[in-house]
Every structure is written in C-alpha cells, then in structure tokens.
Amino acid sequence: MIKHEFRKNDGILIIEPQSSLQASDFDMLSNIIDPYIQENSKLNGLVIHTESFPGWQDFGAMLAHIKFVKDHHAHIRKVAAVADEGIIAILPTIADRFVKADVRHFGADDLDSAIEWVKQD
Questions:
Q1: Is residue 91 pLDDT above 60, yes or no?
Q2: pLDDT tens column, 7-23
Q3: Rounded Cα–Cα distance for residues 31 and 13 (Å)
Q4: Where do the domains of the chain lie?
Q5: How do residues 17-71 score in pLDDT, each as one tens digit?
Q6: What is the DSSP string of 81-102?
C-alpha cells in the first residue's frame, strides 16, 4: 500500500510506502499522474519518503513496479529519495543508469528540502 499526496499546482507526487507494494498501487499512481503528464508533458517531480523499502507483495507487484518506471521515467523531471538507509538511500546511484530524471537522496528528516529541490527549475 502506498500513501500519496499529489500537489497538482506544483506537479509533484509525494509517495510514502506503508507496506509491501502491490500491483494495484502502480495502477493507482498511473491513474493519478497520467492525465497530468498528458496535459503538461512532464511531472515536475516524484518524492519517495520512507524509512526503508518495504518490498513487493509478489512477483506481479515487482513487474508492475518495473513497468511503471519504464512507462514514466522519461516524463518525470526529478526524483527525490527521502530515507536514511537501505536501497532507497542508494537509489540515485542505481537510477542514474536507468532513468532520465535527475535523482537525489535526502535524509529521512529532509522531506521539506526534497520538496523544495523538486520545485526548483
């Protein structure tokens, strides 16, 4: 399950994974941002705020996650990973090779800084 807040005026989606990710989470996120991307050509930013990566509910959920990234990475300008440890903290190093977005890590207490960074041109 993913808790989310879409700040449409800023073109920013803030997500907070609450438990193992499900395939339906990525359908829900797509339904939220796809109309915005169609209208504006890009989402300004995605902010991922979590203490640690909760994993996937099953293999289908992992595939849905990969498809979501594949379908959206070219349409998201910046990704802020807000966490102190684990895979989320090293996301910028990994993602740099696979996505077009500018990806940066922020400490778990730096959510406001991450949002401000995403807002900058």
A1: no
A2: 999 999 999 999 999 99
A3: 12
A4: 2-119
A5: 999 999 999 999 999 999 999 999 999 999 999 887 888 999 999 999 989 988 9
A6: EE-SSHHHHHHHHHHTTT-SSE
What backbone torsions phi and psi does residue 53 show, to the nearest 5 degrees?
Answer: -70, 125
Which numeric CATH code is attached to 2-119?
3.40.50
Q: Helix, strand or coil for residue 105?
A: strand
pTM: 0.87
- Give strand pairing partners of 6: 13
Tell how strand 43-49 and strand 76-82 pair up: parallel
Which amino acid, residue 60? Answer: G
Tell whether the torsion through CA atoms of 63, 24, 80 and 7 is positive or negative: positive
- Cβ atoms of 23 and 61 closer than 8 Å: yes
What's residue 92's pLDDT? 54
Query: Could you say which DSSP state residue 21 is in?
Result: B
Q: Which token pair is 91? A: 């996301």
